[in-house]
Amino acid sequence: MKVLLIEDEQELRRSIRAFLQDVGFLVESANDFPSAMEKAEQYAYDAVLVDITLPKGSGLDIVRMLRKQNPNTGIIIISAKGSLDDKILGLDLGADDYLPKPFHLPELVARLRALIRRKQFAGNQAIELDELRIVPDDKLVEVNGQRVDLTVMQFDLLLFLVANKDRVLSRTAIVEHVWGEMADRLDHDHFLYSHMKNLRKKLLEKGSKDRIQTVYGLGYRLSSHA
Amino acid sequence: MKVLLIEDEQELRRSIRAFLQDVGFLVESANDFPSAMEKAEQYAYDAVLVDITLPKGSGLDIVRMLRKQNPNTGIIIISAKGSLDDKILGLDLGADDYLPKPFHLPELVARLRALIRRKQFAGNQAIELDELRIVPDDKLVEVNGQRVDLTVMQFDLLLFLVANKDRVLSRTAIVEHVWGEMADRLDHDHFLYSHMKNLRKKLLEKGSKDRIQTVYGLGYRLSSHA
DNA sequence: TCCTCGATCAACAGCACTTTCATGCTTGCA
DNA sequence: TGCAAGCATGAAAGTGCTGTTGATCGAGGA
């Protein structure tokens, strides 16, 4: 996994780089706008981490260019400005995630991993698992060629399960990823039960295999070879 | 999270131990070289804190041994010698971090937590033993490619056995490591018998080799070359 | 405005897992 | 060989987790 790190503060750049390399990424880095642009144009990365405030330019321009050039590159904005505008603008331009400084490095790694996994399923490519077919961009799910109408929540839930197939996912992890920030509430589990039930029901009704398994005491797992 | 603390100064050892336990670590400690070596060899810890200057030996030898034995154990050197040589030597030998005395305990905890998290991310790899395959993060166990559904207890138990493969583990040690603090109020032997039985049964059912051996009067051992 | 549908939430019933218990088998040693 | 201690087994009790049902709430459409 190849990552481009665009960050002008030397100390931060070093620590991020070291940490990422520690956990197995290949890292290249750039410390100002021109060199970042050059590297970003020249090579294809799996993911790019970009600071918004750079010497001689704005990270937002890099985001714009990257997105135009290659839709498969994951883009995470890291920015000191906690400003909502920046966040919205960045995501509008096509960034995939936004991480305000200061952040914990393991958090960055987690998001990076999640992003790369997601990207593998992106594009307009369908994900196929025997009888199950999912087209993320079209929000389409089919079982044996027959369309299954899912609500947005159910769709996102299914996508997250499929993107992490054969892994046990904790309820907490699921809620955090699918419902995002509003996950602070207490009574997570019970409303997840309901959504799970509805999702399973709809899939089974259409004749899908019983792929979503409950792992007692841990969470859920979607099996690829049911 | 299990930590081994190797430190000869009694007062310091006590305060570190107390502090770490307060914030939720399970702590074992050793106060001289031989006993440290014994414990370090005997069990797999999540992390080891080791003082360089010890009675009857050097902490550096412990670092060397630990690193050779188990790449997944985090190692932090704590040393009064601020000498650069020691630091470099220690890190070269495979320690993950270096903390000169005197230090603040919260600082130690912070580094310890960071280290363990990093190690967990790095340790995302599967453990393979012929027909047996374990992916800790996915809570996945496979025998000849076929999934084995284990309960949480069974999984933790198996992981501990595998992490200490080819080593005889006493019942007490197993219970303490897998069940942690609540180990006191349990009827040790009897319920371990049950869990062992269930674990063996599930593995054998899927066609695994008979790896878990009973060592009469001592405990159990999981063989890597069954 | 009412109506419908989906999201959320609480309560309860059922079940899986854990732990204990009673019993019988195996091992090491005299 | 016999006996004590150590170990395995199956069954059953107890605990906590999960699925289900159904009520409430709010958004969007008629």
End-to-end Cα distance of chain A, whole Å, is 29 Å
Low-confidence stretches of chain A: none
- What CATH architecture label of the largest domain in chain A applies? 3-Layer(aba) Sandwich
| SS field, number of helical segments of chain A | 8
State the fourth-level CATH superfamily of the largest domain in chain A. Answer: Response regulator
Structurally, the number of domains of chain A stands at 2
Shape annotation of chain A = elongated
Largest interface: pair, residues per side: A-B, 17 and 13 residues
**Secondary-structure class of chain A:** alpha/beta
Strand order, largest beta sheet of chain A: 2-1-3-6-7
Characteristics:
homodimer, 226 residues, alpha/beta, Rossmann fold, Arc Repressor Mutant, subunit A, 2 domains, five-stranded parallel sheet, four-stranded antiparallel sheet, elongated, DNA-binding
Describe this structure in words.
2 copies of one chain form a homodimer. Chain A is of the alpha/beta class. Chain A has 2 domains: 2-120, Response regulator (Rossmann fold, 3-Layer(aba) Sandwich); 127-222, Arc Repressor Mutant, subunit A (Orthogonal Bundle). The first copy, chain A, is built from 8 helices and 14 strands. Chain A has helices at 10-22, 33-42, 59-69, 84-92, 105-120, 152-163, 171-179, 188-205, and strands spanning 2-6, 26-30, 47-51, 53-54, 57-58, 74-79, 97-100, 127-129, 132-135, 140-143, 146-147, 169-170, 212-215, 219-222. A 5-stranded parallel sheet of chain A has the order 2-1-3-6-7, with helices on both faces. Chain A has a 4-stranded antiparallel sheet with strand order 8-9-10-11, with helices on one face. In chain A, strand 9 and strand 10 form a beta hairpin. In chain A, helix 6 packs across helix 7 (171-179) and helix 6 packs across helix 8. The first copy, chain A, is elongated and about 55 Å long. The interface between A and B is medium-sized, with 17 and 13 residues. The first copy, chain A, binds a DNA duplex (30 and 30 nucleotides) through residues 151-153, 187, 189-191, 193-198, 214, 216-217.
